[in-house]
Amino acid sequence: MQIETEAERAMPSVPPPDRVPVDWHRVRRPLTLVCFSMSLLGAIAASLGTMFAGRLADEPTSTLVVLLAVCVVGGAVVDTVAKTIWATICDRAEGQLRADLLDAAMAQPLAELSEQAVGEVLDRIDDDTWEVGQLMRWGVWQAARTFLASGPLWVVASLTWWPAAFLFPVTAVVAFASVRRLLPQVATTKVVEEAAWTDHAASTEEGVAARDDLRTSLGQAHVLRRNAHLAAVVHRTLDAVLRIETRITRRSGGLLHGALAAVGVVGIALVLSGDLSTARLVTLFLVTTMFVGGVDMLARHLPDLQEGFGAVLRLRGMLASPAEPTGGLPLPEGPLDVEFRDLAFSYGSGTFALRDVDLHVPAGHTCALVGRTGSGKSTLASLLSRAVEPPRGTVLLGGTDVLDLDLQQLRAAVGVVTQRTEVLAGSLADNITLFDRVPRARVEAAVAELGLTDWVAGLPAGLDTVLGPGGTSLSAGEEQLVAFARLLVRDVRVVVLDEATARMDPVTEARVVRAADRLISGRTGILVAHRLSTTERAERVAVLESGRVVQQGARARLARDPGPFRTLLEASAHEAVVEEHHHDESSIGTVRRSTTPPPSPALDPTPSLTRQVLHAVSIQPHWGLVGAALFLVASLTGAFGAITGWIWGHVVTDLQAGERPTLLTGALVLSLLVSPLLLSQAFRTYPHWWVEVRLRVRASVLHGQTSQHRLERTPPGEVVARTMDADRLARYVDRWVDFVNGLVVAGVTALIAGTWLAGAVLMAVMIASALASTAGRRVAGRSAAAASTSRARFGQSLVSALESVRTVKLAAATPQVHAHLREVDGGRVDAAVREHRVQALLDGVPVVMVQFGVVAAWAGLLTGEWGLATALLVANAVSGFDWFGRVAGSVVTEAPGVRAWMNATSRLAGGGDLMDLPPGVDLVRGTGPPPRPAGRPRSRQPLGGPRRRHARRAGRRPVGLRRRARAPPRPGRVGQVEPAGRVGRAGQHHR
Predict the structure, then answer these.
(1) Which CA distances in Å does 830 have to 135, 727, 827, 833?
(2) Neighbouring C-beta atoms of residue 341, cutoff 10 Å
(3) Which residue, 126, 140, 256, 940, is most buried by CB atoms nearer than 10 A?
């Protein structure tokens, strides 16, 4: 049922009219047209290159080699530039999408937003937008390139052999039709999988946020076991997705490679019958290979596109979430009175209600609300600020129904201070202004008016002292002082103090009371009083009981006359008196004293990047190593495989010699048809390894953060953001797997070609890419590290804002906090633009080098270095080698960023190897460690027994308990037995 709820939540709905939908309009701009025009130009050049290659097979000349080089190399350069521009467009659009999602999330009604887990909202705004960005940067670009390249290839194929005019579109339509019914199933299962990922992210965030409670309650075992269970759910839901994706790969790949094999067989027959020249056959087969390779690549990435579209649906759902009402009447000028008129209110669940409440607080006066716990005092105060919506006509401010007032103006005028003040990640000045652009002098004046000047001066950096996650911690009383300063800076006209001193010691309370008195002076005030001593500052008192106002009036009269208030006063006569002596009015807050910071915690040594890669690739070998081997064999066969190229080269050579290559034709068909089967099986297993790496990083960090040893205090938002960036490690290890596979392919090419030069051409592509990447390593490393750091900073700021959302919304500071988050995210966008620009340019190097390799293959034929069979082998193998060249550069450029991320994340896990699972944890089976035993009970003697025996033996020698307990008792724990199952249940309230 929970998964169905998540799926329903992710379904698209109509966003409010002022919100831009998540669709192609977000990237519609002039530069987009320029990008795809350049891509089309590159595709045309590549298609012309196939014609020159076909002629080279019949009669190699230097002119044809030069024309081939201009077409294929020039087209690759143009395409690389276009891809770089496109990455920048997508990064900017992704940043704007995050900003819109922030607006949609924080614009939700407070009651609905408070019900959402912070980890879930973080997953939508951070992870899903990144996923959509990846979809646009690479998936949409690949799809557009395939579509644009198909046109020129279709024209060339039609001119070469006229039936190809029908073959290409029919093949594409049949391939799409074969998988069309499976795509909705991918979408459905992807929604379920993403719901599992969201639950796992929320569990990780909740566990990290509750680390202190988990230590004290010994609840780590529970949270690790629950996290492992959710990880197993991720694996199961992923498996359901992979089953469908495997069918898609097998169907589309089989059809497309079958079409290529058919073209090869028919073309060979036509050459044998004299209806087609070998030059045209080479061009036809090469064009069909490029077409099949492009469409097959797109078909294999359809599930990835579908996954991105699943994220789009979830983001559309968030953008369509209802927003708080906007607009309304302005507040009346001057002092404001408060009136509750015939108020009847109840929550959606439960039996509690306010009934028949009539209460009037004149402007400039203060009224205290008193009563037993649960009588409705805090609810009455919440209705005034519309933290919950009151019935129409029942709550009036300045004579106007609060439902008719502009919500932002209402909350800007009504200041609320509750028992717990929320502090955001930012400076003290930022926390006082809530990121509003308030003059510094105004902040200093508010501090002075509350008598906080000396306290602020005692902070490490005064008003610029960083508070919140990662900054200076404040006591409960000091946090309340910040809340009072917020109200003064906002110049509120109505003050609601919901027992703001309930968490303080008497001395601190006395200081805060002075500040509260200054704050209320001249304003309309409502004091929710749990302590009756609080009412001494109020002129009027209203007593609530079971949701009704049973008594109200002047405090002096109610304290004197018999009634409920006097009864409460008499019952509270034992309350501690707030001591106000020996504190002059300027002595508010405590002066900070600088001390030597504690030594850094001892961490397990972090392994080197090489050791981490070796360990990561060896986990779950039936997924990782087997999948890598399947990818290797599939890359040797298939349309661009070295084995396929070797067979095809000998087929053409035999045809030119007038021979009938029957066995070679059969081998060609077999090599083409076996590749999609191997590839589909690789896609069935390898993604599980990828996911296991990500989940292990999360489990390792969660274990380190909740263990009994304390690490450096890191904000939960930053911790979670680091773990969500674990794709970096999985991707980098995958780069090494592909790099090794590339070396094997180059070796096999040299072996079957019978010359080391054939393998050297492929190796040259990898070496040139690595050298280019080495030259740009510093830039790439700095840009990747900056992007990772800025993402972590944004996650920290976002989590801080979401955890403090009640304070933010009730202070009418949503626009200001949203602007602050956009500013923080602006740095992230700039860093992402730099990272992806560098990455796109460096990725373009192997693409260009591949085309030089194609030219070199034909140049070898021209110079007599090798024959036509070897030329076709090398040209075919190198055409599919651009990915291996790309990863050769990536293992160099991505190393600094991955190393920086790994070291930072390892520190969050307490050091050590990020692939090491916590003891007893299995993320595939979903099992976790058993709860820690509560320990041996000190004694089984009833609590009163020893005391009675000791009383009977008064005056004689002391009676010990050593006969009944093996360890001496501690004071207050004589005979106490730990309740059974206590540790096993610890931490359940953190769900």
Answers:
(1) 19, 21, 5, 5
(2) 13
(3) 256
| Residue 552 dihedral angles phi and psi, to the nearest 5° | -155, 155
Distances, alpha carbon 848 to alpha carbons 336, 354, 772, in Å: 72, 74, 12
At residue 604, the 3 state secondary structure works out as: strand
Read off φ and ψ for residue 985, nearest 5 degrees. Answer: -90, -10
Q: Which of 102, 314, 298 is nearest to 193 (CA)?
A: 314
CA dist 60 and 866 (Å) reads 12
Tokens of 84: 């770089």
In one letter, which amino acid is 740? Answer: V
Q: Looking up tokens 């469908």, which residue turns up?
A: 244
E strand segments, 484-556:
494-498, 524-528, 540-545, 548-554
The three-state secondary structure class of 81 is: helix
- Token pair 């902040």 in the structure block, residue: 443
For 330-456, where are the E strands, in sequence order?
338-346, 353-361, 366-371, 395-397, 400-401, 414-417, 426-427
Q: Tell me which residue has tokens 């303080």.
A: 504
**Residue 548: in which H helix or E strand, if any?**
strand 548-554
User: Percent helix, strand and coil across the chain, each rounded to 5?
Assistant: 65, 5, 30
Q: Which residue has the tokens 């304070």?
A: 807
Return d(Cα 681, Cα 337) in angstroms, integer: 73
Mean pLDDT by runs of 10 across the 991 residues of the chain is: 35 56 85 92 91 88 93 93 93 91 86 77 85 86 86 88 87 86 83 88 89 88 93 95 89 90 93 90 89 76 67 83 86 88 80 82 91 82 88 92 92 85 88 91 87 85 84 79 85 83 63 75 85 81 90 90 86 55 45 57 86 93 93 89 91 91 94 91 92 94 88 80 87 92 90 88 84 75 80 85 87 89 90 87 83 91 89 85 78 84 91 91 91 54 41 38 33 31 31 29
Q: Which residue has the tokens 């050297």?
A: 760
Distance CA 611, CA 916 (A): 12
First to last CA, the chain: 17
CA–CA separation, 799 and 820 (whole Å): 13
- Beta bridge partners, 542, equal 369, 552
Question: Would residue 339 be called left, alpha or beta, if left means φ above 0 and alpha means ψ between -120 and 50 degrees?
Answer: beta
Alpha-carbon radius of gyration of the chain: 36
Residue (of 611, 408, 546, 547) closest to 490 by Cα position: 408
Phi and psi (nearest 5°) for 276? -150, 135
The torsion region of residue 961 among left (phi > 0), alpha (psi -120 to 50) and beta comes to: alpha
How do 426-427 and 414-417 pair as beta strands?
Answer: unpaired
291 sits in the region (left: phi over 0; alpha: psi -120 to 50; else beta) called: alpha
**Token code pair at residue 247:** 């069918």
Give dist(CA 631, CA 75) in Å, integer: 28
CA–CA gap between residue 766 and residue 890 (Å, rounded):
11
